[in-house]
Amino acid sequence: MIGSFRKEMKKWHSVLWIVFISMAFGTVGFLFFSPQNVNFMRVARVNGRSIHLKEYYRSLAQLQERINTLKPYAKMYGLSEDMFIKSVLGVSNPAEFALNSAVKDQLLDSIAEDLAVRVDGEWFKQELVKSLPELVDQDSKFDVDAYERYLQRMSITPAAFEKEKEREFSRNLVQQLVYNMAYVPNNVVNDFLQADYGKKSFEIMVCPQSFFDKKAEEEKVSDQDLEAYFSKHTDKYRVPEKRSGRYWVLSIDEFKKQIEIDDLAVNRFYERNKSSLFRVAPQIQLRRILLALPEGHTSKQRDDLSYKAKNLQKLLIESPERFAELAKKHSDDKKTAANGGLTEYFSRNTYSQAMEALAFKLRDNEVSELIRTPEGFEIVQLVGRKKAYEKQLNDVREEIVDTLRAKKALASVKADLERLVHTYKQEPTALDEFIQKHGLKENKTSLLSQEDTQKTELEGSLAAKLFAGNKAIDAIGHFAHEEKFVLYQISDIQKSYVPKQSILQDQIKSDYLKSRSRDKMKSFAQDWKKALLNNQITLEDLAKKEGFAHVVTDKIIKNTTKVKGLENFGTLIQKMFVMSDPSQVVQHRHENTLYFGRLKEADDQLNKRAERDRSKLIEQEKYKTRTTLLGAFIASLQRNAKIEIDNKVLEAPYGRQATT
User: What residues have CB less than 8 Å from 559, skipping those under 6 apart?
Assistant: First the structure.
């Protein structure tokens, strides 16, 4: 008995060891793959520096936030979200974009460390507030409680968040340093100014289409030529498939009348949306003095107006009670000057950003400092302030009822139409019964083609539906259009076909001769340009030889729109202004006319306007150079870096979940 017991215990002893080992591995696996440890798994290394999964997640979350802010704009412009976001952000693969952003951040972090970039404490606080405008209250003060709630939602401690922000600001400083390295040489600026503002005269040869048409007609056209042309361009003469249909427009107004909305639904909608749909933003009322700069003002006019504005602001600081009196006398704001500069109550995004940034911080009757805005110089005084509030339920009850009725009516109409389409397949009479029941008026389309689907009106939407899929005659469907529903039925289909060559003979010959004329133009143009560049003939002699008009312009500027002897020449003059040497030749085609141009004489002396715009041009060119310079700088860092990507981590469930 004891012996058998010992044998059984030996068996269990082995099993227990296996269980204990399994539990140990399970515990280690849990600790290693717990959310906290997963966040620190490495997805890439850049020059030996690790990028962890949490950094990749953060980069992806920031991208998603940018995408979410753009989605309403896509809807506004009637574009698909994917297409709009790709065109604005250049993002087709969010996961790849986020990883590249994390790599870029790591590269910039290493540069910031090499340069020993240090962020000043006070400056850091200012930048932190600027980066979180949604946490600034109506009195323009940073809401610390909201900041704590914001960090709680992000599941991050203040120390960790501010450390990440410090790294972000350091990266921004590195990029700003690269930006400030942009330089535009004087000779480049002078070339631009000369091209835009210098005066030049040109000689131009005008070659009309009729010359090439005549050359094309001089050669015999055989039946074989026409047959070969038709065979090559058959699709050009194809008559496209056409379809027509009947349709009926359903307004939801009749359906809305049949729908009752109870108080409970109204109350529920109000409570759920009162902080967004029914919130009135904080407003202020000001007295405003605007000293407007004239269009095309000189630097002297700007300085004189600035001097006047500073004296006026100083006077108002000393005597704020005189604001209305001085606004009537000095303000250029026609809407408010007569009323002592008094504005209506307004919320943010009504006036310039610079003015509002100061105005919303003012205390009662306080006069602002001098504000520089796109219009000129402004001084404002706070008269009154209204705090943000939520509209009362009774004030918005009718609006809510109408919204809920419309929503339910839309759902009801859509459900009825879906049932009709389903029932119609077994019971064709259901369509006529539905039309009679709702008293719908029948409309008919003309024969429509695929090209008609590009139209923006109802006809375009109908064409798109008639040609969608392989629908047969009598098939029905429906779609929404401008808060209404359209029910349609295909009534006729005319298949695509190519007419016989004999029917199109005259059209084919005309098209063939046009094609030959274009070939002649190309051939002659190549020979003429070659002869001109090799100085075998002058432009004037070539024009005489071929019987073309030869025009010599006066000294003109780049934006000249009228030239004696020329008509409708398009962008020819702007194109020729690039030339700086009389040996150069410009070839330009506009509509049915070919032009050849040469520089005759250039005026090296720039006008006053050019000198006045010099600084503006330098800034514009610097901006272009900065963008290119920063891109080149990042590209050079990536080119010289050792970047290792761990695709196994990214493809694992905890890596893929970030992209779902």
Answer: 574
Q: Between β-strands 476-481 and 376-386, what pairing exists: parallel, antiparallel or unpaired?
A: unpaired
Residue 69 has a CB neighbour count (10 Å cut-off) of 9
Mean pLDDT of the chain: 83
Of 117, 121, 148, 118, which Cα lies nearest the Cα of 132? 148
489 close to 476: Cβ distance less than 8 angstroms: yes
DSSP collapsed to 3 states, 427-461: CCHHHHHHHHHHCCCCEECCCECHHHHHCCCHHHH
Q: Do the beta carbons of residue 581 and residue 533 sit within 8 Å?
A: no
pLDDT higher than threshold 90 for residue 181: no
- Distance (Å) of CA 213 to CA 222, 370, 399, 411, 515: 17, 68, 68, 63, 10
Residue scoring higher pLDDT (150 or 87): 150
Helix (H, G, I), strand (E, B) or coil at 89: helix
Residue holding tokens 């289409």?
209
Measured between alpha carbons, how far is 163 from 185 in angstroms, rounded to an integer?
A: 40
If you search the block for the tokens 């967004």, which residue do you land on? Answer: 276
User: Which structure tokens are listed for 294?
Assistant: 């004239």
Long-range contact pairs involving 631-639 (C-beta distance under 8 Å, separation at least 24): 633/178, 634/104, 634/107, 637/107, 637/108, 637/111, 638/103, 638/104, 638/107
Indicate the residue type of 131.
S
The sign of the dihedral angle between the CA atoms of 628, 634, 637, 641 is: negative
d(CA 38, CA 32) in angstroms, rounded, equals 7
Closest CA to 67 of 59, 135, 53: 59
Q: Answer whether 524's CB lies under 8 Å from 542's CB.
A: no
pTM given for the model: 0.46
Q: Span 44-55, mean pLDDT?
A: 83
Nearest to 477 by CA among 467, 492, 490, 487: 487
Q: How many CB atoms lie within 10 A of CB 620?
A: 13
Q: pLDDT confidence of 579, banded at 50, 70, 90?
A: confident
Tokens standing for 419? Answer: 């049932």
How many angstroms from the chain centroid is the CA of residue 62?
Answer: 18
**Using alpha carbons only, what angle is made at residue 22 by residues 18 and 27, rounded to the nearest 5 degrees?**
150
- The DSSP output letter for 245 is E
* Continuous segment of H or E residues that includes residue 356: helix 353-359
d(CA 333, CA 352): 14
Cβ–Cβ under 8 Å, residues 608 and 298: no
Higher-confidence residue: 58 or 304?
304
Q: What is the DSSP string of 457-509?
A: SHHHHHHHHHTSTTPPTT-EEEEEETTEEEEEEEEEEE--B---TTTTHHHHH
The burial class, CB within 10 Å (0-12 / 13-18 / 19+), for 521 is buried
Task: Assign 332 a pLDDT band (cuts: 50, 70, 90).
Answer: very high
CA-to-CA dists, residue 550 to 531, 555, 567, 628, angstroms: 17, 16, 13, 43
Q: How far apart are CA 50 and CA 173, in angstroms?
A: 22
Q: How many Cβ atoms sit within 10 Å of the Cβ of residue 214?
A: 12
